[in-house]
Automatic annotation (TrEMBL):
Protein's name in the database: Transporter
Organism: Paenibacillus oralis
Keyword field: Membrane, Transmembrane, Transmembrane helix
Keyword Transmembrane helix: yes
TM ranges: 6-24, 36-60, 66-84, 105-121, 127-143, 150-167, 187-208, 253-273, 279-298, 310-334, 354-379, 391-410, 422-443, 455-472
Keyword Transmembrane helix appears in the UniProt entry: yes
Lineage: Bacteria, Bacillati, Bacillota, Bacilli, Bacillales
Length: 473
């Protein structure tokens, strides 16, 4: 079926290119995104009032989409504040210092723990579970906060989510679209996920070590304080914790009990088959109960007021982090279902959303063979991931892979897996700033700086993985 592109598609694509250029040049993109929303609204409605209203409505849409992430980050930060003030955090992470003694061990240790955890209940809850526990250890042994965020991000939102071998949400979507059994896509993705994971994480580690040795590393905490990605207050920085009154024995018992409660969450997720928002809600509710219990024990008569105070601190932090992110996310959400919801059915009747149309159009103008097929699926997957949701475009990647596989006569599963890997690595949380929020916020770094730090390793990994896929097709 021929894909019909309108002026809206071309304007959207032009703004994407402009935004990517500005991000590479380390310039702020908020104003450009707002301008893009206005331009798209003007084309869609043909009225000044409609385009102006579209800006505000797109902000509301983005906020609703991101609210669960804002809340889980805010609650985890609030809980972390009271754990740090009472000294429970120090007691809790002390045993881990024997395993994470150097920056290198901290990078790989955090990465592997994040990957294993993310396989079972996806990366965002995993970040919330392990970030507050392992980050102080990593900082103490010399791993920058930004380096810890990179490790958590690449291993969790990259390796674990792109394979998704336990929950199997991603391979089911792509396999159904390609007309294949889920098992065949999962099997075909194994070598691609391994290659992508090894190349990207090793490249990121090498770049981090090189920059640290050359003295040009941009410290994560400093980036978070001065950049666009939110502010960590001084009390959230290591070494500036004012202990609250808590008996040493109580501190030790709580340091044991809190990890056990989160471990119980993991067990509950597995037994009850909780994933995505349900898993996040379980972690968030547990964090709120821990916050209340520890605050009442530590502050006693002032506990009621302090619970509210900690929650306010967490919410202020969460919205500071998301302040510059919401306008940018609002623009990219227009590439999917948000456009029709905000501006009506003004796209061509054959449209499946601006981003998906652009990806399908790309696949429609290239010749069908193995080499070009692999390149096209990688690029198409990456393009569909630009809206910050790695899952929104992987069905398109699966359908295009089916077309190429049929024309070539083989390699459908490999091409499907390649499109899945590209879409999720780009949109699932390693390159798009608002998709990076969980790891960035927990580690206290700018999501924009984290996206720039991930850019080269992920692009190198995608290039190598695409070449490997050419030989496997």
């Amino acid at each position: 079926m021929r894909i019909e592109l309108s002026a809206i598609h071309y304007v959207y694509l032009a703004f994407i290119v402009f935004i990517l250029v500005l991000m590479i040049k380390r310039r702020d993109t908020t104003m450009i995104c707002v301008t893009g929303i206005f331009a798209l609204g003007l084309l869609a409605t043909g009225t000044l009032s409609g385009s102006v209203s579209g800006i505000f409505n797109s902000f509301i849409y983005a906020t609703k989409e991101l609210m669960s992430t804002i809340m889980i980050i805010s609650i985890i930060v609030a809980m972390s504040r009271v754990l740090m003030r009472t000294g429970i955090n120090e007691t809790m992470v002390a045993p881990l210092t024997r395993f994470l003694r150097t920056p290198s061990m901290a990078y790989w240790g955090i990465g592997f723990i994040m990957m294993v955890t993310s396989f079972f209940f996806w990366p965002s809850p995993a970040v919330a579970l392990i970030g507050a526990v392992l980050l102080p250890v990593a900082l103490r042994v010399g791993l920058p906060a930004l380096g810890a965020a990179v490790a958590m991000n690449l291993f969790g939102h990259g390796i674990a989510l792109s394979g998704d071998y336990i929950i199997q949400g991603a391979p089911k979507l792509t396999a159904d679209a390609a007309g294949l059994p889920v098992g065949s896509v999962m099997a075909a993705s194994v070598p691609l996920v391994i290659v992508m994971g090894l190349v990207s994480t090793v490249t990121a580690f090498w770049m981090m070590r090189r920059d640290m040795q050359n003295g040009v590393w941009r410290d994560g905490l400093a980036a978070a304080k001065t950049g666009a990605g939110g502010v960590l207050g001084d009390e959230h920085a290591p070494g500036k914790v004012e202990p609250a009154a808590l008996h040493p024995k109580a501190r030790q018992w709580l340091a044991i009990l809190i990890p056990l409660l989160f471990a119980a969450d993991v067990v509950a997720m597995l037994l009850l088959h909780l994933q995505g928002g349900d898993a996040t809600a379980l972690v968030g509710g547990t964090a709120v109960l821990i916050l209340i219990a520890v605050t009442l024990l530590a502050h006693q008569n002032r506990g009621l007021e302090k619970v509210t105070s900690y929650l306010i601190d967490g919410l202020v932090f969460g919205f500071k982090v998301f302040g510059p992110v919401i306008p940018i996310a609002a623009f990219f959400y227009l590439g999917d279902a948000a456009f029709a919801e905000l501006f009506g059915e003004v796209l061509p009747k054959t449209s499946h959303g601006i981003v998906n149309d652009l990806g399908a159009a790309l696949a429609g103008v290239v010749p069908l063979n193995g080499i070009v097929g692999a390149i096209t699926l990688a690029v198409t997957g990456a393009i569909t991931g630009l809206d910050g949701s790695g899952f929104s475009g992987i069905s398109l990647a699966g359908s295009i892979a089916g077309l190429f596989g049929t024309a070539i006569g083989s390699g459908t599963a490999t091409l499907t897996a390649l499109g899945q890997v590209a879409a999720i690595w780009v949109g699932g949380g390693t390159l798009i700033p608002w998709a990076l929020i969980p790891a960035a916020a927990i580690c206290g770094v700018s999501p924009f700086e984290l996206a720039r730090r991930n850019l080269k390793p992920v692009l190198v990994g995608l290039a190598v993985t695409t070449v490997v896929a050419m030989f496997l097709v």
